[in-house]
Amino acid sequence: MSGTALVGIQWGDEGKGKVTDLLAEHTHCVVRYQGGNNAGHTIVVGDEKYALHLVPTGILYEHCTPVIGPGVVIDPGVLLDEMTALTQRGIDPSSLKISGNAHVIMPYHLELDKVTERFLGRNRLGTTKRGIGPAYADKAARIGIRMQDLLEEKIFSTKLKVALKEKNLVLTRVFGRLPVDETEIREQYIEYGERLRSHITDTALLVQRALDKGENVLFEGAQATMLDLDHGTYPFVTSSNPIAGGACAGAGVGPRDIERIIGITKSYCTRVGSGPFPSEADPADAEVLVEAGGEYGTTTGRKRRCGWFDAVAGRYAARLNTLTELVVTKLDVLSSFESIKVCTAYRYEGERYEEFPPHQTIFNKCTPVYEEFPGWGGDITGARSLDDLPKEARSYLEAVEELVGSPVSWASVGPERDEIVHVRDVS
Ligand code: IMP
Q: Which atom of ligand 1 is nearest to the CA of 39?
């Protein structure tokens, strides 16, 4: 048995794809356990760059079985497009396994995501508008449609009819939109079901069997800890549980099936969408990070908000995920700074908070307490071992380990596969 969970410890986009790539050689099965096509993993393999939104990164490796677990919400049209695009680039998606229990993102979810955001006005969440929240809401309300429903026309028609009775009323009467067309959706989604039929299976059993055989299973988190529905900066979060604990429910394994938990963090911090961000940098520094780090969303193309590494949030994430190690990505992006800030505590109404505050007002209104570290003032993309890094960069990594309370195993120094430094053996 060897389960590894890979989780983002900030607000997403930490570069999880690159770490999956690093682990891929010894991985037999890669499982997505939450989220949907709101995610975006960019992986650079040789000269090829792949941006995957829904298909697990394991698809890129012949020896890996890619799995979409029951905790994921699936837009079948997007999934099929992604599979077609991969086929066109010579990657065979036939090994993809999809849980029959995964919920389906329906056209009315997309429409509701858009109109709800518009309705919220300046209080909007800044969602990816992919229908994620409305699909998870229907799942919790027990009126959702699951992938297995697409395989039986009668069941699907009944469930669709029930859902549309309410959805079309909400769309037309509350939001003043046009209703969605039942016949059109039924035909389209039954066709999707047919095209995906051979992939739909009991993925929890498949994953358990792999673990029983001693195979390495990677549970690939999408989004990140600070976007977790229960533990993130609610309501500016996604509607699922990206934390390592979410892998159990979302993939259908027990807590004892996961022994290694890798937290991925950028050497600085970014977030997209609305919500508090105590260590957000001033515009000049943020612009340097945006340009040096190419901080534009893989999924929406939105420019990301940029700031300094937040060690308070890092400690919180280390605790929530019981991290066994940290991987620091994009260390090279900090090369242009003479001095690098790290947020080590928050201050609110004269009080200092070293742990993540229990009340939202504190987090919303706090000011960051920074410690400054000397920059290294030179290109580090050529570094391949710890000794190749300037001493200031090594000290920075040590500070991150110390402040977060988790050992750093790797630090990436560029987007290419080999642009990475092994920091220490952890396991
Ligand atoms: P939703 O997941 O589309 O409902 O969006 C909810 C919040 O999560 C918004 O602030 C999004 O910007 C954010 N979000 C969702 N997916 C990602 C991601 O993959 N990276 C970064 N932020 C994300």
A: 19
